[in-house]
């Protein structure tokens, strides 16, 4: 999404009193990020209310030339002197809104890969490192320690790594769940990249970041030699003599304590230099956790920018995969097939919605939005959607006149035939998980996220999942890996070992299921009966406007909410 401004120029100016950047307007391509990160990293006096052109303050134009330009360039050169950093300094440069979004999306893809590999592989395994290293490289993030930052390509990679981290800080500081997820993935990524460093680069990193840990002296090392050899992994006497050992509180090296790879004495752990990543990670986690808390408190200032607020709100549960608003199988699914497809190819979230509408002949607006857009995404036409919802609602407490007045319009609106003519996008997994949680009487949401574990277990048993499979799913749910739990459900119900894809969308689940079940062939639509064909003609008569299709992102979904409020 690109946010544009009709103004032709943008002048950044700096308030002498409060040291805050002031932007008179924003041109598409002229940037706003410097102001965002400056606000988050600068202490502003309480009594200074900065306003442009007010007589109480003197504002000096910020000129990027001469000495100031050299200062910024030297700071950036120092900042990007190593391929890895602790992200303690915010970006000092300008960045376009287009670049802002691209950097954020690429880092989200990387962190999603980190999460998926962390669950499906052992984090210390060669296969895990190989796949993650390939992803880091393909997304153009720094991964080679021997390359100089003086090279333009390497400089751009380190710049992207730095800026993208701070962008996602803004997006993932908003709730405790988001902060916890972001910290975990960033830690796993940091560990992987640190372990890839050669010994010299590790020492250089520690020196650059002033990470000075207490090393034990030769006398203490000799007195503990035998115990250090026995407690440290793959160490001999010669190796111990060559290695530096760091004496740290045991709670700072819990990963090593847990795996019994370190010598403990009097509440201290004796960590060899080769395992220093454990201590560095502890510092990284502490620093990042505090930074996210501070960012969350400063967020209202950032959200006041109308260009950034929608983008940041979208990033925390953004979907970066295929666009399922474009119907590839339009008209190839018949209404008679839906019941069978719901048991074979629907993800659990849509399967429970289908069952609810069949049992109750009604869905509240959250369920209608989630399920209606999913059905649209798998290929139902507008005519079929009107038939489907009319037939079900008329079996319940809704008569034909009320359906036409209260519900038919909203269905046409969903297909882009009313209102703004927006072709609405089916919900992604992240949107289902993070937005509009279900309340009592609702059936929408994600069963793995919103169901009680015992109820989820009963539901999986009713789906004929084996006890071992149920335990695997529940373990993933316990670890808050809801999409991976759904992917495991896919593997169990399709009798495969590895799905071969990362699940991010209910319509992706349906498509992948159909590929397996039909051998990659297109879904064949069953012939309609004369009665069904007549019903189709009746539904067509409900259409009042010509077809028009436009693409829209998920943020516009809120505009549709108002049409679904009536129960």
What does this protein look like?
By secondary structure, the protein is mostly helical. It contains 27 helices and six strands. The protein has helices spanning about 35-40, 65-80, 95-120, 125-140, 150-170, 175-195, 200-210, 220-225, 225-230, 235-240, 255-260, 275-305, 310-315, 340-345, 350-360, 365-380, 380-395, 400-405, 410-415, 430-435, 445-450, 455-460, 465-480, 480-495, 505-520, 530-540, 560; strands at about 10-15, 20-25, 60, 245-250, 265, 270. It has a three-stranded antiparallel β-sheet. A three-stranded antiparallel β-sheet has the order 4-6-5. A hairpin with a 5-residue loop joins strand 1 (about 10-15) and strand 2 (about 20-25). Helix 3 crosses helix 5. The protein is elongated. The two termini are about 35 Å apart. The model is unreliable at about 1-35, about 40-70 and about 525-565 (pLDDT under 50).
Strands, helices and their partners?
Elements: E1 12-15, E2 21-23, H1 33-41, E3 59-61, H2 66-79, H3 97-120, H4 126-138, H5 152-172, H6 176-195, H7 199-208, H8 218-223, H9 225-231, H10 237-242, E4 245-249, H11 254-258, E5 263-265, E6 268-272, H12 277-303, H13 309-315, H14 338-344, H15 348-360, H16 365-378, H17 382-395, H18 400-406, H19 408-414, H20 429-434, H21 447-450, H22 453-462, H23 467-478, H24 482-493, H25 506-518, H26 530-540, H27 558-561
Antiparallel strand pairs: 1-2, 1-3, 4-6, 5-6
């Amino acid at each position: 999404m690109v946010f544009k401004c009709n103004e032709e120029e943008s002048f950044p100016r700096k308030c002498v009193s409060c040291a805050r950047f002031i932007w008179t307007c924003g041109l598409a391509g002229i940037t706003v990020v410097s102001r965002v990160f400056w606000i988050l990293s600068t202490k502003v006096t309480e009594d200074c209310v900065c306003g442009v052109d007010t007589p109480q303050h003197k504002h000096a134009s910020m000129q990027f030339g001469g000495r100031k330009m050299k200062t910024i360039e030297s700071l950036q050169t120092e900042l990007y002197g190593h391929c890895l950093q602790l992200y303690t300094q915010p970006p000092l440069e300008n960045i376009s809104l287009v670049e802002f979004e691209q950097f954020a999306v690429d880092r989200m893809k990387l962190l999603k890969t980190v999460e998926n590999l962390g669950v499906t592989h052992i984090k210390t395994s060669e296969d895990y490192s190989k796949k993650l290293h390939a992803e880091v490289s393909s997304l153009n993030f720094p991964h080679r320690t021997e390359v100089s930052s003086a090279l333009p390509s390497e400089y751009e990679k380190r710049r992207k790594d730095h800026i993208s981290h701070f962008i996602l800080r803004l997006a993932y500081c908003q709730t405790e769940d988001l902060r916890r997820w972001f910290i975990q993935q960033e830690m796993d990524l940091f560990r992987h990249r640190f372990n890839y460093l050669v010994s010299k680069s590790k020492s250089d990193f520690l020196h650059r970041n002033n990470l000075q840990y207490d090393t034990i002296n030769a006398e203490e090392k000799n007195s503990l030699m035998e115990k250090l050899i026995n407690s440290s992994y793959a160490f001999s006497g010669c190796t111990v003599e060559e290695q530096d050992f760091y004496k740290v509180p045991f709670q700072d090296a819990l990963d090593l304590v847990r795996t019994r790879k370190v010598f403990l004495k009097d509440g201290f752990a004796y960590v060899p230099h080769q395992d220093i990543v454990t201590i560095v990670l502890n510092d990284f986690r502490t620093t990042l956790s505090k930074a996210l808390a501070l960012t969350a408190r400063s967020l209202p200032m950032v959200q006041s920018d109308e260009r950034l607020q929608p983008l940041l709100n979208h990033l925390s549960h953004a979907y970066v995969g295929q666009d399922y608003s474009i119907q590839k199988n339009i008209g190839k699914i018949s209404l008679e097939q839906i019941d069978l497809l719901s048991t074979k190819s629907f993800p659990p979230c849509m399967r429970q919605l289908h069952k609810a509408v069949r049992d109750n002949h009604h869905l509240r607006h959250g369920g209608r939005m989630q399920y209606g857009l999913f059905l649209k995404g798998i290929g139902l036409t507008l005519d079929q959607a009107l038939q489907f919802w009319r037939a079900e609602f008329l079996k319940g407490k809704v008569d034909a006149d009320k359906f036409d007045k209260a519900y038919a319009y909203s269905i046409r609106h969903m297909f882009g035939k009313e209102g703004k003519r927006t072709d609405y996008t089916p919900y992604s997994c992240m949107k289902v998980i993070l937005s509009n949680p279900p309340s009592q009487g609702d059936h929408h949401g994600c069963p793995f996220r919103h169901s009680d574990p015992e109820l989820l277990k009963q539901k999986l048993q009713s789906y004929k999942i084996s006890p071992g499979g149920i335990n695997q799913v529940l373990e993933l749910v316990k670890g808050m890996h809801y999409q991976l739990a759904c992917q495991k459900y896919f593997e169990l119900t399709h009798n495969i070992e590895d799905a071969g894809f990362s699940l991010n969308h209910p319509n992706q689940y349906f498509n992948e299921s159909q590929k397996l079940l039909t051998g990659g062939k297109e879904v064949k639509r069953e012939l309609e009966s004369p009665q069904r064909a007549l019903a189709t003609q009746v539904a067509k008569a409900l259409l009042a406007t010509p077809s028009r299709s436009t693409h829209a992102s998920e943020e516009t979904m809120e505009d549709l909410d108002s049409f679904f409020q009536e129960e």
